[in-house]
Design a protein that fits this description.
One of its GO terms (molecular function) is glutathione hydrolase activity. By secondary structure, this protein is of the alpha+beta class. It has helices at 6-17, 27-35, 41-49, 57-63, 79-84, 91-95, 122-133, 239-252, 257-262, and strands at residues 37-38, 75-76, 104-108, 111-115, 144-150, 156-162, 219-223, 226-231, 265-268, 275-278. Strand 3 (104-108) and strand 4 (111-115) form a beta hairpin. The radius of gyration is 20 Å and the shape is globular. It starts with 5 loop residues before the first helix and ends in a 9-residue tail after the last strand.
C-alpha cells in the first residue's frame, strides 16, 4: 500500500486557488458516505468481474452484503463508516508532503499540451509519439478515474486518481471504508527477464520517499495561449495510446469529441509483441 495523498493534493490546490469554504466541498461526498449511492452499470460490471471482493471481509461486506454481489440499481453503503465517522490517525499521512511542480509543456501539431512531469510517463510518452508522427505523411481499466472540468471563466482542471488495480489491493478497511491501494505495484522489481513481461527498470526500483512510475496522462491543450481542450483517461498502460489516438482524432482529423472517443483504437503492449484493437466503448476509459 502506498501512502494515500489525494486529499492532501486537493487541499494544496484549494489553498492556492479555492474560493469556497473547505468544509463545503465535501458535503456531497459525506452525504454519499452516510446514505449510500446507487450502483451504476459500469461499477456493477467491475464488481461482477472482480475475484477480490468475496476474498476480503471488508470488500464483501460493502459490495456483496449477504454474500450477494451488488447489481446495477442497488444501493451501496458502508454502515461501519457511518458509525465510526471515518477518522484516521497515521504518522505516514501526517508526514506526506505535496510536491507542486510546473506542468510539462509539449508542442505538437500547432497545439501546446500541458501535462504531468515525471515520474508520470504519460506526457513524455505522448510527446514521443507525436515526434514520431511528425515524420509520417499520415497520421484495460484498472482502479483509475479521471475528470475534466472547465468553468465559466475558462479555468481548466484535468485530474487522474487511482488505487492502481480494480479494488486496489483487494482489501477494504472495515473501520474507514477505504479501499486499500496497491500503488507499490507500480514500482519495478529485480526479476528474471522473460518474453511476456517488461524487463526490470532500476530507475523505478522501490526506495524511501519515492514516487513510482505512472502512465497517468492528465493534460490541458492550448493553442495561441487559449484553452483548446482537456483530456485524460483510465486504463493503466492503455492510457497513453488512448489519449494519443483521441487527440489525433479530434485535433488533427477534425472528429467531433464523442466520435473521437468512440472510434476504434489500436494498442501495442511492446512486450509481449502483440497488437490489440478496441471498438466502440473501449476498455481504456477516456474523457
Amino acid at each position: 500500500m502506498g501512502v494515500p495523498g489525494e486529499i492532501a493534493g486537493l487541499h494544496e490546490a484549494w489553498q492556492q486557488y479555492g474560493r469556497l469554504p473547505w468544509k463545503s466541498l465535501f458535503q456531497p461526498a459525506i452525504k454519499l458516505a452516510k446514505d449510500g449511492f446507487v450502483v451504476a452499470p459500469y461499477l456493477a460490471l467491475s464488481i461482477a468481474e472482480s475475484t477480490k471482493i468475496l476474498n476480503d471481509p471488508g470488500l464483501q461486506k460493502v459490495f456483496a452484503p449477504g454474500n450477494k454481489l451488488l447489481k446495477a440499481g442497488d444501493v451501496c453503503y458502508n454502515k461501519d463508516v457511518r458509525k465510526a465517522g471515518g477518522i484516521i490517525k497515521m504518522e505516514d499521512l501526517k508526514n506526506y508532503k505535496v510536491r507542486v511542480t510546473d506542468a510539462v509543456a509539449v508542442d505538437a501539431m500547432g497545439y501546446t499540451i500541458h501535462g504531468m512531469p515525471s515520474p508520470s510517463s504519460g506526457t513524455l510518452g505522448m510527446s514521443l509519439v507525436m515526434n514520431i508522427f511528425k515524420r509520417w505523411s499520415q497520421l484495460r481499466d484498472h482502479g483509475t478515474s479521471h475528470l475534466c472540468i472547465v468553468d465559466g471563466e475558462r479555468n481548466a482542471v484535468s485530474m487522474t486518481t487511482t488505487v492502481n488495480y480494480g479494488f486496489g489491493a483487494g482489501l477494504l478497511s472495515p473501520l474507514t471504508g477505504i479501499v486499500i491501494n496497491n500503488e507499490m505495484g507500480d514500482f519495478s522489481a529485480p526479476t528474471e527477464i522473460s518474453d511476456d513481461q517488461l524487463p526490470p527498470a532500476p530507475a523505478n526500483f522501490i526506495e524511501p520517499n519515492k514516487r513510482p512510475l505512472s502512465s497517468m496522462t492528465p493534460i490541458i491543450v492550448t493553442k495561441g495561449n487559449q484553452l483548446a481542450g482537456v483530456l485524460g483517461g483510465s486504463g493503466g498502460l492503455y492510457i497513453i495510446p488512448a489519449i494519443v489516438q483521441v487527440f489525433l482524432n479530434h485535433f488533427v482529423l477534425g472528429m467531433e469529441p464523442l466520435h473521437a472517443v468512440l472510434s476504434p483504437r489500436v494498442y501495442h503492449e511492446l512486450i509481449p509483441n502483440v497488437v490489440s484493437t478496441r471498438t466502440g466503448l473501449c476498455y481504456a476509459g477516456i474523457t
